[in-house]
Amino acid sequence: MKFQILGTAAAEGWPALFCACDPCRRARAAGGKNIRSRASVLVNDNIKVDFNSDEFHHLSTLGLDYSQLEHLLFTHSHNDHFSTGELAYLRDPFAHNRKKNPLDIWCSADVANIIQSRYPDEAAAGMSVHAVKPFETIGLDGMPATPITAIHKHDELCLNWLFGPLDNCVLYASDTGFYQPPTWEFLKNVKLNMVVSECTLGFTGESETHMSVNSVRRMKDELVRLGSLKPSAQFVITHFSHNALLLHDEMQERVKDDGFVVAYDGIILEAGP
Ligand SMILES: [Zn+2]
Ligand SMILES: [Zn+2]
Ligand SMILES: [Zn+2]
After folding, report:
1. Residue 229's closest CA among 201, 259, 194?
2. Which ligand is the nearest neighbour of the Cα of 241?
3. What is the pLDDT of residues 19-51, one digit of tens each?
4. Which of the ligands is closest to the CA of residue 9?
5. How far is the CA of 200 from the centre of ligand 1 (A)?
6. Could you tell me which CATH number the domain at 2-270 has?
7. 135 torsion bin: left (phi>0), alpha (psi -120 to 50), beta (else)
8. How many whole angstroms separate alpha carbon 73 and alpha carbon 36?
9. What does the domain layout of the chain look like in residue ranges?
10. Which bound ligand lies closest to the C-alpha atom of 52?
């Protein structure tokens, strides 16, 4: 499985749109891996997780072709993961010869309601919207995907996603805080070959609705305790706020003993089957 992280910032981007803080000034000056766009993932060229206002930037800078997308999955409706306006360009006359029409969209019932209220005629909009239930696996043209309950936005069911068969899969955990018992109960019976977790806060504090380096460490410990983490599993951290302070190489140095890989925009990870 090819797992490419297209955007690795928290909501405001890094450098943040209107910000002149020291980490933003340093990121502007250093460039490269320190320029972080909004959270977005591509699995095997045909499965996309989240769709935000940085997608044109992703496809043009990374040489991607979204006409090949067959499935679009959403985690939640925060603006940095979900831009309903961009979905207007799925249909004629904006898009021709897409690989799959309608595009299958998989999301919580909450997110489905938002999409369907903006695009009441799904066929005309070039999409087919499916509300999923946590812990129920769906099939994406041969790729199993399982939504699990995240802890993030109190007025909405937020999802993280597992890709691949449950005995050999990848966890994409963004956005979330430290999981609650029902999610751990489910993960007990899962074997992970890679975890990609948000780490919005870095070393700068704790939150119930976002992860820090400390909470990612706790998450890894719990997965080990449950027997859910394959010994060879990669652990990758992403979705950094400028308030996390540390530039890419500084963060990588601080977490090298944990074995964490610090993601950057465009990073391609190979995982699992
Ligand atoms: Zn986010
Ligand atoms: Zn800033
Ligand atoms: Zn969010």
Report:
1. 194
2. 2
3. 999 999 999 999 999 999 999 999 999 999 999
4. 1
5. 8
6. 3.60.15.10
7. left
8. 21
9. 2-270
10. 1
